[in-house]
């Protein structure tokens, strides 16, 4: 019985309750994300929080866990604001994304004080990256870089190369039977941004040389462009020759086209680990 309670005793009261508080904040965030139907955020949050826990576990013995009263008051206030937000404020997407950072900052202040925040700079950056509202960046990124037009060009070339009679006007792919518009939501920008988030996560967990740090985001973007160009070419063919199939694959059933780039990117990151 004594050995069963040994792990709890090792935390010596305050540290144990700090872990309990962190667990409660994580559960609260995941519940809020679930209620807001932010499936992508739930998956990303689990990955990011798991990575943060992994990093903290490996450097726990080197952490300075001393704080002062002023820092604890600020930290407790931040944590209280998170709980109050859940109780009284609507679940706005941006707030749901930002609250893990506020929670992490509050916990770090309680644990190590203002002077000890520098110990957690990587973990706090990860929480800031998690807070980025990716959906709001789709239109600005597309307007700046003209993603849909580039994809329309590549998809048109693919169709022409395999023998179809196809032309293009701006972001329209024109086959003899039907023209297909490549809209912002078809651009794959969301998947691209999500993979860049995961790339930052990978580089934080597995530090590498500067060549690989440059290579990871470039490969992430190229994978999304390649897979999405093929997807759009296939969708243009379905729209022209089998419209019921187009409607089927243009709905939530198209998640496989988001999964393929993630699997390819995961394989690439795993290959970097082995080098």
Would you kindly provide a written description of the structure presented here, covering whatever features stand out?
The chain is elongated and about 75 Å long. The chain is mainly alpha-helical and 275 residues long. The longest helix is centred in the last third of the chain and has 32 residues, at 210-241. The chain folds into two domains: 6-132, no CATH class; 137-273, no CATH class. Helices cover 73% and strands 3% of the residues. The protein has helices at 6-10, 14-35, 39-59, 69-88, 93-112, 121-131, 134-145, 147-161, 189-205, 210-241, 243-249, 256-273, and strands at 167-169, 172-174, 179-181. The chain contains twelve helices and three strands, in the order H-H-H-H-H-H-H-H-E-E-E-H-H-H-H.
Key phrases:
mainly alpha, 73% helix, 3-stranded antiparallel β-sheet, 2 domains, elongated
Spans with pLDDT under 50 lasting ≥5 residues?
1-11
Pattern of helices and strands:
HHHHHHHHEEEHHHH
Strand order within the widest beta sheet: 1-2-3
Q: What general outline do the C-alpha atoms trace?
A: elongated
* N- to C-terminal distance: 46 Å
Biggest β-sheet, characterized? 3 strands, antiparallel
Number of strands: 3
What's the alpha carbon Rg, rounded to whole Å?
23 Å
How many domain units? Answer: 2
Structural class: mainly alpha
The fraction of residues in strands falls at: under 5%
| Arithmetic mean pLDDT | 84
- Assign a percent range to the helix content: over 70%
Number of helices: 12
């Amino acid at each position: 019985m004594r050995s069963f309670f040994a792990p709890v005793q090792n935390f010596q009261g305050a540290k144990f309750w700090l872990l309990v508080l962190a667990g409660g904040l994580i559960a609260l965030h995941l519940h809020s994300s679930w209620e807001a139907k932010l499936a992508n955020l739930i998956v990303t949050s689990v990955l990011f929080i798991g990575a943060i826990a992994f990093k903290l576990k490996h450097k726990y013995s080197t952490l300075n866990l001393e704080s002062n009263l002023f820092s604890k008051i600020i930290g407790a206030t931040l944590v209280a604001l998170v709980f109050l937000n859940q109780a009284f404020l609507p679940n706005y997407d941006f707030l749901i994304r930002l609250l893990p950072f506020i929670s992490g900052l509050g916990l770090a202040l309680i644990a190590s004080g203002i002077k000890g925040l520098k110990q957690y700079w990587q973990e706090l950056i990860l929480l800031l990256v998690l807070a980025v509202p990716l959906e709001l960046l789709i239109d600005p990124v597309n307007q700046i870089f003209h993603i849909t037009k580039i994809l329309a060009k590549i998809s048109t070339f693919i169709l022409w190369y395999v023998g179809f009679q196809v032309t293009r006007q701006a972001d329209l792919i024109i086959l003899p039977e039907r023209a297909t518009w490549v809209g912002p939501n078809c651009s794959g920008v969301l998947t691209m941004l999500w993979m860049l988030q995961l790339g930052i996560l990978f580089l934080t967990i597995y530090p590498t040389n500067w060549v690989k740090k440059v290579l990871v985001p470039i490969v992430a973007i190229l994978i999304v462009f390649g897979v999405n160009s093929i997807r759009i070419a296939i969708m243009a063919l379905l729209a022209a020759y089998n419209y019921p199939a187009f409607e089927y694959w243009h709905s939530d059933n198209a998640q496989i086209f988001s999964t393929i780039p993630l699997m390819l990117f995961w394989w690439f990151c795993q290959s970097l680990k082995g080098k």
